[in-house]
Amino acid sequence: MTNATEHAGFEKDFARAERRERLFARIHRSARWFDALGLAFVTPLLKMAAGDNPREQLGELKRVLVIPLIGIALFLTAWAWLAPKVETSLGAIPGPVQVFEQAVNLWDDHKAERASAAAFYERQEARNAKLEAEGKSDRIKWRSYTGKPTFLDQIATSLLTVGLGFLIATLVAVPVGIACGLSKTVNGAVNPLIQIFKPVSPLAWLPIVTMIVSALYLDPSEELPKSLVISAVTVTLCSLWPTLINTALGVASIDKDLVNVGRVLQLSTPVTIRKLVLPSALPLIFTGLRLSLGVGWMVLIAAEMLAQNPGLGKFVWDEFQNGSSQSLARIMVAVIAIGLIGFMLDRIMYALQSAFTFSASR
User: Which GO terms describe its biological process (predicted)?
Assistant: First the structure.
């Protein structure tokens, strides 16, 4: 009887240990995704909840969460203390509280503008329904709401623009980079162009792009306005170089034995690229894509500001020109938003890099 009881207890302990091991395996698999998305602090919390060594996990939590929060708190304290001491043409530099208040105001403005748009369309539908009921269908007109873009609308425009420019840059840079990595002749022909055009500022590209797009894009659509195309092409010209260079480097650095195996098997060039070259070069390609997206986001703000194209850059410039007592705080809201969006874009690319490559570096 004692042996049976001990055996049952042993089986329960073994099953409990097995469940715990499976739980920790799932946590470890999830850890890289939390890390990629900037949520590394979730992992030690899950491990503590699962019964791991609390002291060890508290140390990890301190490293990934507490210390960064302390750094942010010290920055906010220094900002709040120093800001009122600096007087500008727009008044004293706003502190964190004033900036937060303007962020709330911008959100309220967005909601009010959406409510105005909804009311406009409701009145339009009611008027047109009345005309149709009276048999005056020929007088029915549908108009789009033409209210001022809100801060969130400007963010959406900037994200759409940088996404379009980044997509074009990727479609150009990756194939050219692969060709450069596979062929020394192509690399020799393209490399001088890279060295010449890579340092060119977006402020130099913008007038050229504006004139060319204006000459070629004669019938712009409502979904793809000319201003968006100009900004997107400027982003493309400035952001394609990191992807091109890293792609060429990644392709040129693959194991030569893999290339020789492809030749022995008499694989066609497209199959060689798809089966051998791309899997080996993907880590460096994604590194280039992350750099390109970061460059594109920075370039876009400058292009929008200079060309007065819709987006966050134009919002910053309009607030600067406005010169009201709230303008400086709103500009700082935009600066913080630009930084946070840039961080999120990088995290998204890093998550994709983790998903599609065997090894990824931060």
Answer: transmembrane transport
For the residues 10-17, what does the mean pLDDT come to?
55
- Contact between 300 and 231 (Cβ < 8 Å): yes
What is the rounded CA–CA span in Å between residue 217 and residue 229? Answer: 9
CA distances from 287 to 126, 281, 342, 353 (A): 54, 10, 15, 8
Determine contact, residues 237/205, Cβ cutoff 8 Å.
yes
Helices (H), the chain: 2-36, 42-49, 54-61, 67-82, 96-133, 151-182, 184-197, 202-216, 226-252, 256-264, 269-272, 278-307, 312-322, 327-356
Confidence (pTM): 0.81
Mean pLDDT over 311-318 rounds to 88
Contact (Cβ atoms closer than 8 angstroms) between residue 325 and residue 143: no
Q: Which of 339, 358, 357, 356 is nearest to 38 (CA)?
A: 339
Domains defined along the chain, listed by start: 2-84 (no CATH), 151-356 (1.10.3720.10)
Residue 165: count of CB within 10 angstroms of its CB: 29
